[in-house]
Amino acid sequence: MTELKQKRPIGRPRITVDDLQPDWKEVILSLAMEGASDCEIRAALVVKNGKFSHDLWYVLEKREQEFSEILKKAKVMAQAWWEKQGRINLKEDKFNHVLWYMNMKNRFRSEWNDQRPVQKEDEDIKDRGLELYEPPNGRLKQIQRFMQ
Prior knowledge:
Layout: H1 24-32, H2 38-44, H3 54-63, H4 65-89, H5 97-107, H6 139-147
Helix pairs in contact: 1-2, 1-4, 3-4, 4-5
C-alpha cells in the first residue's frame, strides 16, 4: 500500500506581524507621536530579511487586524502632533503657516479637504421651487431655433 504524500504549500511563506521586529508596535507609535509619515514608519520597520515594501505594508494592514489597529492609532497620533504644532506656533513669526496648511491638507485629506462632496439631486428644477424664466412674446422659441 502506498503512502499518501503530504502536500507542501507552494510559494513563498506568508509574512505576518510575527515576522516584523519584536518592538514593531512601539516603533510605529513612537514615530507617530512625533508626527512621522507612513513612509518614515515603513523605513523604520525591518522584516527579518531586512526588507519592507510598500505593498507588504498594505497587505498587512488589510490582512492583520492587530497591524491595522496600530496604524489607525498611529494616524490619529501623527495628525494630533501636526495639529498641535499649528496651534502652538500660529503666532510665531518664523512659522510658515502656508506650508503647514498644505501639509495638513495633503496628509490628512479626509478631515482637511476644501472640497465637500456634491450630492446629486434627482429632482427637477421646478420640484425645488424654482421657475425657469421664459422671455415674453415667443422669444424662447426664437432662441431655441437659433441654438439648433
